Amino acid sequence: MQGFILHTQKIKDEDLIVYILSAKALLKTYRFYGLRHSSILNGYKIDFSLDENPNFLPRLKDVMHLSFTWILQREKMFLWQEFIRLFYQHLRGIEELDSFYFELLNESAIKFLKQNPKRIIIDAYIKILEFEGRLHKNFICFSCEEPIKNEITLLRAFLPSHHYCALGYSFNQKKLEEFYKYKNSSIFNDEEIEKIYSIIKEGF
Ligand SMILES: [Zn+2]
Q1: Separation of 146 CA from ligand 1 center, angstroms?
Q2: DSSP letters along 135-174, please?
Q3: How far is the CA of 135 from the centre of ligand 1 (A)?
Q4: Contact criterion met (CB below 8 Å) for 5 and 16
Q5: Where is the DNA replication/recombination mediator RecO N-terminal domain (predicted)?
Q6: Which residues, including other chains, have CB under 8 Å from residue 12's CB and lie 6 or more apart?
Q7: How many A from CA of 84 to the centre of ligand 1?
Q8: 194: Cβ–Cβ under 8 A, 6 or more apart, which residues?
Q9: Which of 61, 113, 164, 178 is most buried (most C-beta within 10 Å)?
Q10: Is 101 helix (H, G, I), strand (E, B) or coil?
Q11: Spacing, Cα 145 to ligand 1 middle (Å)
């Protein structure tokens, strides 16, 4: 089967616990001498199989790295691994998952070749918020519970507030509405993209 390595944890000297996002689950697997394998790295997409073990974690084997064409571009790989880290922090502890997450990573990895990585991550994140029912499309301030007009201040997880109710970056309401509707960050300029990206980095 195929999956994305979301996280690895060193055990003993050279073994690894490897967390893999497959189409249906976040798998916790064990790899003997995992540290010796160059194909086991955070963010990599792999083909693999599992030896089920009734008394312990399933054993990860037959690992083959399914490389992206952009993998040697340092800046892109750095941002990809940052995205993967946020993904893992968000999904950790969950076992069964909708295929939405796996497909979103697949789709994003393909787009990484030609588009701006931060914009791809922003577009992916807004889809996650909507999928999980956490996207606040009605701009009601989380603090005072009154409607917000014109300038919307966004906090972690895009929680909306008035600029005088919380500290954060503000965005034009019309632009946000369009962004939430079409899930396409191309309406934002580079400065706005940096601001949105820094909010995402605080955590999904
Ligand atoms: Zn308020």
Answers
A1: 6
A2: ---S-B-TTT--B--SEEEE-GGG-EE-TTTS-SEEEEHH
A3: 18
A4: no
A5: 1-71
A6: none
A7: 33
A8: 118
A9: 178
A10: helix
A11: 6
158 alpha carbon to ligand 1 midpoint, in Å? 14
CA atoms within 13 A on the CB side of 135: 17
The β-bridge relationship of strands 151-154 and 169-172 is antiparallel
The pLDDT, as a whole number, for residue 124 is 98
Q: What is the pLDDT of residue 184?
A: 96
pLDDT at 35: 86
Distance 202 CA to ligand 1 centre (A): 21
What tens digit of pLDDT does each residue of 17-69 get? 999 999 999 999 999 998 888 899 999 999 999 999 889 999 999 999 999 99
Cα-to-centroid distance, 140 and ligand 1 (Å): 8
| pLDDT value of residue 145 | 97
Q: What is the DSSP code (8-state) at residue 68?
A: -
pLDDT score recorded for residue 34: 86
Name residues of the chain where pLDDT drops below 50. none
* 154 CA to centre of ligand 1 in angstroms: 12
Predicted pLDDT of residue 36: 87
* CA 9 to ligand 1 center in whole angstroms: 42
Domains annotated for the chain, with CATH where assigned, are 2-65 (2.40.50), 74-201 (1.20.1440.120)
Q: What is the pLDDT of residue 173?
A: 97
